[in-house]
Amino acid sequence: MTQHVLMRICALACSAALGVALTPSCTFRFGTGSEDADRSDDLTDFSDPGEEENAPRSPTEPASEEDVFTDAIASADPLQLAVATARTSYALYLLDGSIESEGVAPESLDEMALSMLVERYLPWALEQADAWVATMDPAFLPALPMGYIVRYECADEFGCPYSHKVWSRSKQRWAVCGPNDCGDGRCKPCPEWFGSLANLAVKGWCSYVCIVDAEVVGSAGTIISSFRGVPVSFSYIDVEWKMLK
Predict the structure, then answer these.
(1) What is the pTM assigned to this prediction?
(2) What's the pLDDT tens digit per position in 125-153?
(3) 74 sits in which H/E element
(4) Among 208, 232, 206, 215, which residue's Cα sits nearest to residue 173?
(5) Where are the stretches annotated Disordered (predicted)?
(6) Looking at residue 60, what DSSP letter applies?
(7) Are 113 and 102 in contact (CB under 8 A)?
(8) Whether 217 contacts 205, CB under 8 Å
(9) How far, in Å, CA of 145 to CA of 164, rounded?
(10) Average pLDDT for 196-201
(11) C-alpha closest to that of 123 among 95, 99, 84
């Protein structure tokens, strides 16, 4: 009973905090990540201690989606990367707050229930993000250096996919999407003693930039439920959004 009351109180606090999220004063993390975030994406058999951890890939071995994305992003336009990151992170911040404001019981958020909430709020969140980005001066966006480290630590921390593969109608090609930002989904106004209750519905979210060759064509996002750890993902490419399986 006490836990239920605390959960409802925290949900109301998160709902109040949503108003703050509607202003463009949100701070998103951009940059090169850390050295610890750099991870090997080769298919080395780590069970053999005689092999080097970073053994080169065989010429006949196809590159993984993570390798393709890392290679492509090294030549991508830094401004396009920054704009895509800002747009998707802002939308996910609003989506997170909207879901928390529902005050739903965390244990009830299975994949179907979370998907329904994402579909309900995502169009509005993307619309708000597009409007916000349209008013921004690109000079205020942090410059992302060429070859910046993809933030795979986001996937490790929250259980998001390491990549998404989405069809681009305009390019008639598959776009590969890699993680570049994330958030913990915590209720910011909740006191520290709330502990895990500060994450009522959402454990966290990850945003992705989607690239064909070296061109940014859109973005994607994944949101993770707190109780069941269920991931629900979407893409936003060619100015159209859709849910991802």
Answers:
(1) 0.70
(2) 999 999 988 888 766 665 544 444 578 88
(3) none
(4) 215
(5) 31-66
(6) T
(7) no
(8) no
(9) 23
(10) 62
(11) 95
